[in-house]
Amino acid sequence: MNILAKQSFRKGNGAMDILLTGGAGYIGSHTAVELINEGYGVIVADNYSNSSPEVIKRIEGAAGRLAAYDVDAGNEERLQQVFLKHQIDAVVHFAGYKAVGESVQQPLKYYENNLRALIATLKVMKDFRANTIIFSSSATVYGTSQAVPFDEGMDTGCTNPYGWTKLICEQILRDVAKAEEEFTPVILRYFNPVGAHESGLLGENPKGIPNNLMPYIQQVASGKLEKLSIFGNDYDTKDGTGIRDYIHVVDLAKGHVKALQYAQEHRGMEVFNLGTGKGYSVMEVVEAFEQANGVKIPYQITARRKGDVAESYADVSKARNVLGWEAEKTLEQMCRDAWRWENGVRSRLENEQFAI
Ligand code: UFG
Question: Which of 113, 202, 298, 311 gets the most CB atoms within 10 Å of its CB?
Answer without folding.
Answer: 202
